[in-house]
Amino acid sequence: MKGSSLALALGLAAPSQAYLRFGCATLSVQRLDPLVEPGVIPSAHLHQIVGGNGFNATMDPTTDVSQRATCTTCTFSEDFSNYWTAVLYFKARNGTYKRVPQYPNALLGNIKGGMTVYYIQESFNSNGNQKITAFKPGFRMTVGTPQSKDGSNPGLRYTCLQDVMTRFPETAEFPKQPCPAGIMAIHHFPACWDGKNLDSPNHQDHMYNTNKGGFTTAGPCPASHPVRVPQVAFETMWDTTPFNNKADWPADGSQPFVWSYEDSVGYGTHGDYLFGWKGDALQRAMDSKSLLSNGIATQSVDTANQCTIKNTVNEEIDGWLTSLPGRHMDM
Q1: What is the DSSP pairing of strand 227-228 with strand 47-51?
Q2: Are 19 and 119 in contact (CB under 8 A)?
């Protein structure tokens, strides 16, 4: 299966359903955030980005991303969307930082780092009976905020992996003990849209969250946000195993991992989504009763791995750092 264009589809538990599960390799790791800080170079903290190579610091909402991009790191070759999250670092007992590598999720071949992306109609067990409306060109949204002080959103969770197939239990905070196969960060986005606005000032108010977490069926959409759109989710596999020696952890025994904006608890986890599927490909997928019907195009994992962009921000993000990128004020 390694390098095969079929690798993206083989994680499906019920192939008769039309939800999508696929891998997207890392496109870039740099300080850009065209939704929260459009045009700002560099942005406040580091992100890991996957998807189409049309990604840049501005991402003009009047431009169709799928028309600008020429390749994608996702194994569905008609998906030029961009997906991004903060980056995980290990903070050693001596106060230095080391970036945590990412690794492929189960059944996705040799994809380089990146994330697993889901588009779900209702659940893994049923398509449901609602019309699922695909996003429109220019659509974007975020979930979570770095300033969050609680773990109240059930769609933002972590799993301490015993192996690559572990899925539960989920926690709102970073795991407090070493994880044998790393940490999976999970981001579930709202699936109720107001039907009018492709964005909103905080990138969230045009959406309404009825998500219950754990890939369970979301609640009904309210009258204010009546349009059911695909339930988008990310899973990112962080290989924390090189840092499992507790002799290197803080002297007080607390867990040592931090997001790239210096969050050591985990409540501030957040994700960004910018729609970029070509033509009606996503709508055809959501209208399908089987995953690969209606000519949804794929590409090999090896081809997806070759898509990249040049860094706009050039700074040291690897090696042992005395401060997180852009966070010198924290030292």
Answers
A1: unpaired
A2: yes
